From TrEMBL:
Domain of life, per lineage: Bacteria
Record domain Molybdopterin oxidoreductase: where: 107-489
Record bears the keyword 4Fe-4S: yes
GO cellular component: membrane; oxidoreductase complex
InterPro entries: Asp_de-COase-like_dom_sf, MopB_CT_YdeP, MoPterin_dinucl-bd_dom, Mopterin_OxRdtase, Mopterin_OxRdtse_a_bac, Prok_molybdopt-oxidoreductase, YdeP_MopB
Cofactor(s), by name: Mo-bis(molybdopterin guanine dinucleotide); [4Fe-4S] cluster
Protein name per UniProt: Anaerobic dehydrogenase, typically selenocysteine-containing protein
GO molecular function: 4 iron, 4 sulfur cluster binding; formate dehydrogenase (NAD+) activity; molybdenum ion binding; molybdopterin cofactor binding
Gene Ontology biological-process annotations: cellular respiration
Family: Belongs to the prokaryotic molybdopterin-containing oxidoreductase family.
Span of domain Molybdopterin dinucleotide-binding: 646-733
């Protein structure tokens, strides 16, 4: 029964363990799953396939979190999607089922080919599958007519082989999940400090005096991050949150492995300050902090008091200070206040905490990166850090907290539609073929190309492209336009059902499973958000004898398409050390790769900016002087004179992993048994003449005249700033216009969608009685 009841327990305490236990008990393999979990993070253990947060360094400690346990358990389900399953259900029938139902059917056991005549998936041999892909690829007029998507769970070894194959085939069309995720962090930081990755390591969190957590919900998405946050507060450091929602994990915290805390059922407040900005208002808030610091510094100078800014650092290491200070001076306080959604008193308080702290770490995630002006916002965070030299010192730095467990590693391996020249040169030199130099497609550009019929083959290394991407109706049609769609996957999802004229499902081993190749048991490597690379060994028996590893599937396709060029693909896959030896030759930082990963805990890739080596155009760390956006609403909305009712952000519930829904509950937000809900402020609900509990439709305000609408969502009165709404992804992806993306990033603006909210026409009366407390 669906209901809504605010959650009062602490985050990650008893509630977490109860939920995990229930999850395990619901799985036939509960015992072996637990055993697999217990080996997590030990030598030759498994890298958690959940998020990209770093593994805790202490050796021998068993560290896991509720949502990591869910991720393992989800993969290690007892349920199977067999050829008999596909014989039973036609594709049309399967399309009627929910995403939740589809993934709950279990792991796919056989390679399958879609037969349009019967509307069923049918078995196919691996070789037939490889030959089908090769036939389609080789008959294209240009290699740029194929799109090669990657989701961030792929291992380094698989990703490296994949990019080598695709480049040897002739294109840089590498749309990936990163395009929808931390793209702005990479672009913004690269221009400013010369590296696109976080500059801190796990150890830095123990030394910080203040940790800012901006636009991130770690209690759900990076639960192990709550531990260093809580420890920081315990030793007197500040944790400062910027989030319009009062996320439970950030309010209070109890660690499941600290029995004492659980016995007393008390939880420590992790946040010393919690600010609730407007959606997209963070750049203004941080500009305001910088403006205060600059003002205080000038006052201090006049009075002969100690400086507030780190002038020595600025002189020695940065470029562009004058322009940036001028930009600060030109930014009026009124704009800062109105755009940030915060009072100047709040911003001043944030600035005081910041200015008093000797060492500051700034963390952020999707609340920052999924806006139009995400690159300038990331750069404003960098600017602030440069003002006080908070980069490249112990306990200080930048921490864009990555999403998928190996999304960062995939980029390092060259999954990049805009590859740097040095990488292409290195590949060309090592493998002796002419690499494609033209930039390829991002995710949004790939959809556009498929929509227009310019791209004809879609290939997915993991992920659930049609549900993760914006403008659902159009992205589905784009997929249907293709001649061939191919998905390398573990579980059934909608991307298998929204097919091109031909379609293949290629089932692969998950990270929890043992991967045997000719030379024996293989491990794969991943890179976490702190640039630590380590090896992971599957622990469980492969789910079906027919499953192949991602690397071996890619090798099979590459061989069928290109023959033994530029490498002997199958020989490489016999022993992953051979792939790692190639990586060692091509990718900087991986010299001696196979030996280095023998070291328990793996090895640190290093970070030039953290060493104060600035690989930028100026050879210094750049202050980038971006003006605040004139208005947060895009022209497509304002120029038409349209007024949206609310601005919607789309986010994750506690029981989902991106498009994978574990259950219909969102415990920390008090929602049970339903996901088609929209949170809004009581005052807005009144203003719009609506009622708590009522069914509503949401309609996007955008200029192109296309109707973008989702219907029959339950409207919930929630503690959310006025003018804002929040709802779950992927259900609300139909509302995100394909053309609404970030400047320079092409990242869909999933955290800023202008909408109208109206009462649903159908069953309106019945809806009012929806079960809400
Ligand atoms: N269990 C679990 N773990 C995951 C995932 C998962 O789905 N489930 N997904 C993984 C992936 S791929 C990623 S990228 C990460 C995502 O991790 P998060 O970025 O934490 O994910 P979201 O749910 O999108 O949450 C965004 C947060 O930002 C806030 N927010 C939204 N807009 C704004 C804004 O304009 N300003 C500010 N200051 N805050 C804002 C929201 O209220 C919310 O708390 O998690 C990874 N880990
Ligand atoms: N509206 C809105 N849209 C968003 C976001 C948002 O916040 N709001 N977030 C964006 C973000 S941050 C991201 S990262 C993307 C995520 O986009 P994706 O990475 O494409 O989506 P996932 O849901 O993580 O993919 C799940 C599927 O991956 C497959 N899979 C799982 N494990 C493995 C494995 O080990 N190997 C292989 N080959 N396949 C596997 C399973 O079949 C599963 O169904 O979505 C983006 N879309
Ligand atoms: Mo992500």
């Amino acid at each position: 029964m669906s209901h809504y009841k605010p959650y009062n327990g602490p985050a990650a305490g008893w509630g977490a363990l109860i939920s995990v236990t229930r999850n395990w008990l619901g799985s036939k393999n509960a015992i072996s799953n637990i055993r697999a979990m217990l080996k997590t993070n030990q030598d030759h253990g498994l890298d958690c396939p959940g998020c990209a947060w770093g593994e805790t360094p202490e050796k021998g400690m068993i560290k896991f979190c509720e949502n990591g346990a869910k991720a393992v358990n989800w993969e290690a389900t007892g349920r199977k999607v067999t050829p008999a399953f596909f014989a039973k259900y036609s594709n049309t029938e399967l399309l009627k089922e929910s995403d939740f139902w589809l993934e709950s059917q279990g792991r796919i056991t056989h390679p399958m080919r879609y037969n349009a005549d019967t509307d069923h998936y049918e078995t196919i041999t691996w070789q037939e599958a490889f030959d089908t892909v090769a036939k389609h690829l080789n008959q294209l007029d240009s290699p740029h007519q194929a799109e090669f998507y990657t989701s961030g769970r792929a291992s380094n070894e698989a990703a490296f082989l994949y990019q080598l194959f695709v480049r040897a085939f002739g294109t840089n069309n590498f749309p990936d999940c990163s395009n929808m995720c931390h793209e702005a962090s990479g672009i913004g930081m690269s221009e400013a400090i010369g590296v696109g990755k976080g500059t801190v390591t796990f150890e830095d969190f123990a030394e910080a005096d203040a940790i800012f957590v901006i636009g991130q919900n770690p209690g759900t998405n990076h639960p192990r991050m709550l531990e260093p946050l809580s420890e920081a507060v315990k030793r007197g450091a500040h944790v400062v949150c910027f989030n319009p929602l009062k996320e439970r994990g950030l309010e209070r915290f109890q660690h499941p492995q600290s029995p004492l805390e659980m016995l007393t059922n008390e939880s420590e407040p992790t946040n010393s300050a919690y600010f609730r900005p407007a959606l997209g208002g963070d750049m203004a808030a941080i500009r305001g902090m910088a403006k205060f610091l600059l003002q205080w510094d000038r006052e201090a100078q006049q009075k002969g008091k100690p400086a507030v800014l780190d002038h020595e650092f600025i002189q020695q290491h940065t470029h562009g200070m004058d322009d940036y200070f001028a930009e600060i001076d030109n930014t009026p306080w009124e704009l800062i206040e109105s755009q940030s959604g915060l009072s100047l008193a709040e911003i001043e308080m944030a600035a005081r905490i910041y200015g008093k702290a000797e060492r500051v770490i700034m963390c952020w995630a999707m609340g920052i990166t999924q806006h139009v002006h995400s690159v300038p916002t990331v750069q404003e965070i960098v600017n602030l850090q440069l003002l006080r030299g908070n980069i490249g010192r112990p306990g200080a730095g930048l921490s864009p907290v990555r999403g998928h467990s190996n999304v960062q590693g995939d980029r390092t391996m060259g999954i990049d539609e805009q590859p740097p020249e040095w990488l292409l040169d290195a590949i060309e030199k090592r493998f002796d073929f002419k690499v494609p130099r033209d930039h390829g497609h991002t995710t949004v550009q790939a959809i556009d190309a498929m929509e227009k019929g310019q791209a004809k083959v879609f290939f997915g290394l993991g992920g659930n492209f049609v549900q993760a991407t914006p403008d659902t109706e159009r992205s589905h049609q784009a997929m249907r336009n293709c001649d061939l769609t191919v998905q390398i996957s573990t579980k059934l999802n909608r991307s298998h059902l929204v097919t091109g004229k031909e379609a293949l499902i290629l089932p692969c081993l998950g990270r929890t499973e043992k991967d045997f190749q000719k030379s024996g048991l293989q491990g794969v490597t991943v890179e976490d958000t702190f640039s630590m690379v380590h090896i992971s060994y599957g622990q469980l028996k492969p789910f079906s004898p027919l499953l192949r590893s991602e690397a071996s599937i890619i090798a099979g396709i590459a061989k069928a398409t290109l023959g033994n060029k530029p490498v002997d693909w199958e020989w490489l896959v016999e022993d992953y050390d051979r792939i790692r030896d190639l990586i060692a030759e091509v990718i900087p930082g991986f010299e001696g790769f196979s030996e280095k990963i023998q070291h328990p805990g793996g090895f640190y890739l290093g970070n030039a900016a953290a060493e104060h080596q600035w690989n930028t155009s100026t050879g210094k760390a750049n202050f980038v002087a971006n003006p605040l956006p004139k208005t947060l609403l895009q022209d497509q909305v304002t120029m038409k004179g349209q007024t949206p009712d609310l601005i919607l952000q789309t986010m994750r519930s506690h029981d989902q992993y991106n498009t994978t829904v574990y259950s219909m509950n969102d415990r920390y937000r008090g929602v049970y048994g339903m996901r088609d809900v929209v949170f809004a402020n009581e005052a807005d609900i009144k203003r719009l003449g609506l009622e708590h509990g009522q069914k509503v439709d949401m309609i996007t305000v955008w200029e192109d005249g296309k109707e973008r609408k989702v219907s029959n969502f339950t409207l919930l009165s929630y503690d959310i700033p006025q003018g804002q709404a929040a709802a779950y992804y992927p259900e609300t992806n139909p509302l995100v216009p394909l053309e609404s993306y970030g400047d320079k990033t092409f990242t869909p603006t999933s955290k800023f969608i202008a909408i109208k909210v109206v009462a649903s026409a159908a069953n309106a009366n019945e809806a009012v009685t929806a079960s809400v407390a």
